[in-house]
Amino acid sequence: MIKERGLILEPNKLYLGTTVETIGSKKFVTSLIGRNTMAKLGMFLQITADLGQLGEAHKWTLEIKVVQRLRIYPNMEIGQVTFWQPKGSVNQNVEFYATQNEPYPSQLYNEKTK
Amino acid sequence: MILTGEEIKKEVEKGRIVIEPFNIVDIETNSYDFHIDNTLYTYKKDILDPTEENPLEEIKIPASGLILSPKKIYIGKTKEVIGSNHFVPIIKGRSSTGRLGIFVNITADLIDLGSIQKPTLTLHCVLPVKIYPNTKIGQVTFWCVKKEKSPTQTRK
């Protein structure tokens, strides 16, 4: 838990978290990136995976890494979302409210590799 | 505008986007998942210098997996040839790799219009992590351009 007085993030760790907000759209593709105020302090928000799926809305799992030790606080404005116009039809098998409202670990182990 | 998965499929069928090999199961809602080529390279030197040659060492990803070190950058490429003369590809990580702390590129995600090749990946991990051959490591998105580029810019 991030306490009122803040939590110091360590450079050699990976932190998973979630947004406070439920975010998504059936009409636009969501992309989630860091704010430049946090970037200037050396925080990566999302580890090159900033792209959302059209039609999904949920609290976003955040992947956080810092370059130097950095103190963060509860409820701070940490990132920003952008919405992009899609071109083309969509395969409508996506559930709008996905279940990923808790920090969601990688599911890569579920994929069989050849 | 970003192409939906359905639109990516249509453009591949029309030959306006190249993804080779192309597999329908790797289409996502608004992107296409790509796999890692099993040859990676690391720098032999500890301190890199952009004004000098930085020799590379080849590493194969064995079937038993390769442990990536957070202290290194791994240069790799996709298994698929990817590109287009009509849409700009942008490479992204997948959430499942991002959540393992794997960067698939170092802030350079943009591919030139007309560049049709196996895009280079610059892998970096936050914690030691094992990767396996043919892992679905990232995804590529395709973006509309305002004006068709001139044919003289074509490069392979």
What do these coordinates show?
The complex is a heterodimer of chains A (114) and B (156). By secondary structure, chain A is mainly β. Chain A has 1 helix and 8 strands. Chain A has a 3-stranded antiparallel beta sheet with strand order 2-5-4, with no helix packed on it. The longest helix of chain A is centred in the N-terminal third of the chain and has 4 residues. The radius of gyration of chain A is 16 Å and the shape is globular. Chain A starts with 6 loop residues before the first strand and ends in a 27-residue tail after the last strand. The model of chain A has no long low-confidence stretch (mean pLDDT 90). The longest helix of chain B has 10 residues. In chain B, 37% of the residues are buried. With 156 residues, chain B is mainly beta. Chain B contains 2 helices and 13 strands. In chain B, strands 5-4-7-11-10 form a 5-stranded antiparallel beta sheet, with no helix packed on it. Chain B has a 3-stranded antiparallel beta sheet with strand order 3-13-9. The radius of gyration of chain B is 16 Å and the shape is globular. Chain B starts with a strand and ends in a 12-residue tail after the last strand. At the A-B interface, strand 5 and strand 8 of A face strand 1, helix 1, helix 2, strand 10 and strand 13 of B. Strand 8 of chain A pairs parallel with strand 1 of chain B.
Keywords:
heterodimer, A: 114 residues, mainly beta, 3-stranded antiparallel β-sheet, two-stranded antiparallel ribbon, 1 helix, globular, B: 156 residues
Summarize the SSE layout with pairings.
The complex is a heterodimer of chains A (114) and B (156).
Chain A: E1 7-9, E2 15-24, E3 29-34, H1 36-39, E4 43-45, E5 57-66, E6 70-72, E7 79-84, E8 86-87
Antiparallel strand pairs in A: 1-6, 2-5, 3-7, 4-5
Chain B: E1 2-3, H1 5-14, E2 17-20, E3 32-35, E4 39-43, E5 56-60, E6 66-68, E7 74-77, E8 81-84, E9 87-93, H2 95-98, E10 102-103, E11 120-125, E12 129-131, E13 136-144
Antiparallel strand pairs in B: 2-8, 3-13, 4-5, 4-7, 6-12, 7-11, 9-13, 10-11
